User: Fold this.
Amino acid sequence: MLGLPKGSLEESTLKLFGKAGYQIAKSSRSYRPSFDDPQLDGRFIRAQEMSRYVENGFFDCGLTGHDWVVENGSDVVEVCDLIYSRASNVKSRWVLVVPEASSVQSVKDLEGKRIATEVTNIVSRYLADNGVKAEVEFSWGATEVKVPEMVDAIVDLTETGNSLRANKLRIVDVLLETNTKLIANKEAWACPEKRAKIESMALLLTAALEANKKVGLKLNIEKSKVPDILDELPALRNPTISQLTDENYVALEVVLDEKVVREIIPSLKAHGAEGIIEYPLNKVVPD
Assistant:
């Protein structure tokens, strides 16, 4: 049984599974999706609750944030990192935030103050570790609007910090970095058949995420110019090179980070490359 996150991660999770080769169909009114893999069955459930249900064995595995594993204190196997979210492929942070004009400069300044957050256990442990006594209240959402009128500080989740700055809020400290993880129930992980299935899923999901950052590049080049390309462009040190029907030319193919393509393609052209083709990738399987 597979647990899929309901809510903000839902659509991006379905897209990731689709790229990994698993087609998951869902009804807008159903929490039970259908899978094209007869070995899979599952449910949608809030990421905040996922680790508890995985730990208790209702799910063999599921996707949730590392933060909710920590918040719930769940004893599960963290199979692999899957760094993606609704908006980006970067890690998020739970941060201690105060208004820009606040006198609070460190956690020590929160003594006797009131803090709102969704991760009350994480915040309570953080305060205890720093020897600070403060009131921690659960926030159902829209936490940013509660300072300074309702509370003195908040602990909120952010990726870039742009929204916090737009609301004239200042980050005082980072409590936890987090990202989506595939987690497994310990008994399921100990079962060879279930573990093999979970590991296969982890491999394909990881490969699909890795492919998001890379592209394939093909080109034709005179054989005599290949050394110049390899010397000038370190990213192309391990390409696949194939002989063309014209014995003076070869086809070169390589996988590289998408962010460097804009620099590499003009350089390739300047070195005499022809027929340059950039193409997307579905999976890049790690070594």
In short: The chain has three domains: 2-89+180-211, 92-177, 214-280. Residues 214-280 form a domain with the Alpha-Beta Plaits fold (CATH 3.30.70.120). DSSP finds nine helices and 16 strands in the chain.
